[in-house]
């Protein structure tokens, strides 16, 4: 656990957990760019391969920099164990490959990351794993988990782009009664704002590419939870199949964790202010942000999250034409579907991230033609308002 066990405060763990200095006594964490490790003797090599002696063998299995990142993230999520992966998608894949077999079912909220939907429907379905998509906010929909064969219940709170929240403890109970595990993709809140394991989840997934890095530099992911799940099931899959995190990326992410809470609070404060400003704008019909008075699940969100996060979605009066006008009038905000960066981004979900689903399904999911999503970065919020006002006031 390095210098920062779980008895220390979050901010201290973010900076100190996972530190294991080499004999050089470097102050900053060392970066081990090596694919393999050497042994003192044939006997030691045999003992390491057999798992009888602890130690590094090969960086597909483990690497000191990757281990440092895993220990620090585990300390922040208050998880027994963590394995890092090459990307967020490989974290979800590794979790599914480790915990599911042909004939098993996933019950997932329908408002989850697009590539996760593709993974469940186009990839896992070919291997006999079926996914039922439900309304994540409907408590009754959780009961779909009760159907036989359900092994994973999957959620991504707050959902993207509509920022829907679900009651963690209640859903965990439904999942456990059905013999399923509750898996939460904590990408949008990060442990700085929300601790899904403490709310009853069994597994936490991360796309470290987003806020854990926070500066748009590297890809990475992680799976966290109890040792029996993470070390016992997910790690053996990863070690064999190979979507492991690169030591370089692990080092970047490790340093990203040091500023995570400061960044998440700054993102959230700016997003909340932008949300209130948008709500007061005559050309905006509705704003979706968890901590707004108008958010239908505000009380629940406030119980489960320390702040509202960086994602603000809003319906512009005048449909697609008006929404596109707002995008095209921006001079600073980046027109891209990516998020989790210091640079704010804007996207029209109906024709990008959610463009491939039918118009009816989009409407049912509440993703209208006038909906825009801003992932608020760390620029001045006054500059963000000016950039959006240009198109809104036109
Ligand atoms: C980006 C993202 C992923 C996938 O992560 P990658 O690192 O791009 O593979 C998964 N879930 C959510 C919520 C995301 O935003």
Descriptive account of the structure:
There is one protein chain. The longest helix has 20 residues. The chain is built from 14 helices and twelve strands. The protein is globular and about 75 Å long. The strands form two sheets. It has a seven-stranded mixed β-sheet, sandwiched between helices. It has a five-stranded mixed β-sheet with strand order 8-9-12-11-10. It is 38% helix and 14% strand. Helix 1 packs antiparallel against helix 3, helix 4 crosses helix 8 and helix 12 packs across helix 14. The protein folds into two domains: 248 residues, 3-Layer(aba) Sandwich (Aspartate Aminotransferase, domain 2), CATH 3.40.640; 133 residues, Aspartate Aminotransferase, domain 1 (Alpha-Beta Complex), CATH 3.90.1150. Strand 4, helix 6 and strand 5 form a beta-alpha-beta unit. It is α/β, with parallel strands linked by helices and 394 residues long. 48% of the residues are buried. Pyridoxal-5'-phosphate (PLP) binds next to helix 4 and helix 5.
């Amino acid at each position: 656990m390095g210098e920062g066990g779980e008895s220390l405060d979050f901010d201290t763990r973010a900076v100190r957990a996972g530190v294991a200095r080499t004999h050089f006594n470097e102050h900053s964490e060392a970066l081990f760019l090596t694919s393999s490790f050497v042994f003192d003797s044939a006997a030691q090599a045999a003992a390491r391969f057999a798992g009888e002696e602890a130690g590094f063998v090969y960086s597909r299995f483990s690497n000191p920099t990757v281990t440092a990142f895993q220990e620090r993230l585990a300390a922040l999520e208050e998880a027994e164990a963590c394995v890092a992966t090459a990307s967020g998608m490989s974290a979800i894949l590794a979790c599914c490959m480790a915990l599911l077999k042909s004939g098993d079912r996933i019950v997932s909220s329908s408002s989850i990351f697009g590539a996760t939907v593709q993974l469940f429907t186009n990839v896992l379905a070919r291997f006999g794993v079926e996914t039922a998509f439900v309304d994540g906010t409907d408590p009754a929909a959780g009961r779909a988990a009760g159907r036989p064969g359900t092994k994973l219940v999957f959620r991504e709170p707050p959902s993207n782009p509509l920022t829907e929240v679900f009651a963690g403890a209640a859903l965990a109970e439904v999942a456990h009664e059905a013999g399923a595990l509750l898996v939460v993709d904590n990408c949008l809140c990060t442990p700085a704002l929300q601790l899904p394991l403490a709310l009853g989840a069994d597994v936490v997934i991360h796309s470290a590419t987003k806020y854990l890095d926070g500066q748009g530099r590297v890809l990475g992911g992680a799976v966290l939870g109890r040792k029996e799940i993470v070390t016992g099931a997910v790690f053996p899959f990863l070690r064999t199949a190979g979507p492991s995190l690169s030591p370089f990326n692990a080092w970047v992410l490790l340093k990203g964790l040091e500023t995570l809470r400061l960044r998440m609070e700054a993102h959230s404060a700016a997003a909340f202010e932008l949300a209130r400003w948008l709500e007061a704008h005559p050309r905006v019909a509705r704003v979706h942000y968890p901590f707004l008075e108008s958010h239908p699940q505000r009380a629940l969100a406030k119980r489960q999250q320390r702040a509202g996060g960086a994602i603000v979605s809003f319906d512009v009066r005048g449909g697609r034409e008006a929404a596109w006008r707002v995008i095209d009038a921006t001079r600073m905000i980046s027109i891209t579907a990516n998020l989790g960066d210091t640079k704010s981004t804007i996207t029209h979900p109906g024709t990008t991230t959610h463009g491939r689903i039918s118009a009816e399904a989009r409407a049912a999911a509440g993703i209208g033609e006038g909906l825009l999503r801003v992932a608020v970065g760390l620029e001045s919020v006054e500059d963000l308002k000016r950039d959006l006002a240009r198109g809104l006031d036109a």
